[in-house]
Amino acid sequence: MIAWQLFLPAAFLLAMIPGANQLLGLRNAALAGARYALAGVAGRFAAFALLVTMVVSGLGTALARSALAFEIVRWLGVAYLLWLGVTALWNAGAGGRGTAAAGLSVRCAVAVRQEFVTALSNPKALLLFASFLPQFLPAGAAAFSLVPLAAAYIAVEGVAAVLYIGMGRALRHEGSRLRVPRRRLDQATGVGFLAFGGYLLFAHRP
């Protein structure tokens, strides 16, 4: 039996911890609205589904235990987060001129790609499914038993994502105007991405 009474509170607390994906959701909601941010979350969930598939097949667990694989993924994550941070700071207050004229589907595709790459390039996400979730399974459980547990975590992550998106949406008026200067929001999120990149830079494999 899965220890749901222990898993669900732990999963919610873990999902609510601020991270790069949650920051992306908040920023996307503030700049372009909840629908745009929710589209981006689909990319995050696609990355999670891929990681779960890797873990169930045995590949993800092997990668999680490999120091070399952890380092490769970690450096990819660091590079991407630093790129997001520098880009946000460089274009602070620019108003997204490059994508403003693009259609909604094109802009949503950008949000999906950003969330997908951010989640997939974070070694902590792989460790979540390969090491954290199995702790709540009974001893000797088959690898496929991880699927319902992973699905439950993704659902909990969805609740946390909606809460962060709600916070981002609260930064907008009923129209398209922000309650805070666009430049300040870009600078704050840029610093946030750089901080997460710096944290990942010095992270060590558990």
Biggest sheet record: none
- What would the principal axes of the Cα set say about the shape? globular
- Please write the string of helix (H) and strand (E) elements: HHHHHHHHHH
Percent in strands: under 5%
Mean pLDDT, nearest integer? 86
Give the helix/strand class.
Answer: mainly alpha
User: Tally of extended strands?
Assistant: 0
- Tell me the span between the first and last alpha carbons: 27 Å
- Radius of gyration (CA) equals 18 Å
Keywords: Cell membrane, Membrane, Transmembrane, Transmembrane helix
GO molecular function, one term: amino acid transmembrane transporter activity
Transmembrane segments: 41-60, 72-90, 136-165, 185-202
Organism: Streptomyces reniochalinae
Description:
This protein has 206 residues and is mostly helical. It has one domain. It is built from ten helices and no strands. Helix 2 crosses helix 9. The two termini are 27 Å apart. This is LysE family translocator. GO terms for molecular function: amino acid transmembrane transporter activity. Keywords: Cell membrane, Membrane, Transmembrane, Transmembrane helix.
Q: Keywords for this structure?
A:
0% strand, cell membrane, LeuE-type, mainly alpha, 206 residues, single chain, membrane, LysE family translocator, transmembrane
